[in-house]
Write a structure and sequence with these properties.
The protein is mainly alpha-helical and 136 residues long. 56% of the residues lie in helices and 4% in strands.
Amino acid sequence: MTTKLALAGAVLTLAGASSLAAQAATQAPAKPAAQAAAQAPAKAAPDTHHVAMAHSGTQKPFVATRARIEHAQRILARRGLYKGKVTGKVNDDFTSALRQYQETEKLSATGQLDSATWESLMKAEKSAKTEKSPSR
C-alpha cells in the first residue's frame, strides 16, 4: 500500500512538472537583457552625483548629495570662487569654482565634488571658523 501511494505521488509530481514545462513552452521567449533595458521606461535622474571611489574594506562610495553640493557652493561663495545661486544643483559656475578650488588645493582638478574635495572643503571651513572665533 505504501509503495502504491509513493508511486501515485511521483506520478502527480511528474504531471505537475510537465504541465509547467508546457506552459513555459507556449509563452514568448525571454528578451535579452539589453533589449529589455532599452524598452524599460527611463527613470528620472536622481538629485545626487555619485562619484565611485576606490575604497578598501567596507567603506561606501562618496555621494555628492544635494545638501553637500549646496554646502560646497556656500563655502566656495565665501571664498569668492562661486558666483552663482546656491541651489544644491551642479551647474557650470559650480563646476568651474570647484575646479579652481581643486587646483589651488593641489587636488585632482575634475570639477566634481568627490570625497577628497569634500574633506578639503570641510577642513577649510573648520579652520576658517577657528580663525574667526575670539581668543580667550
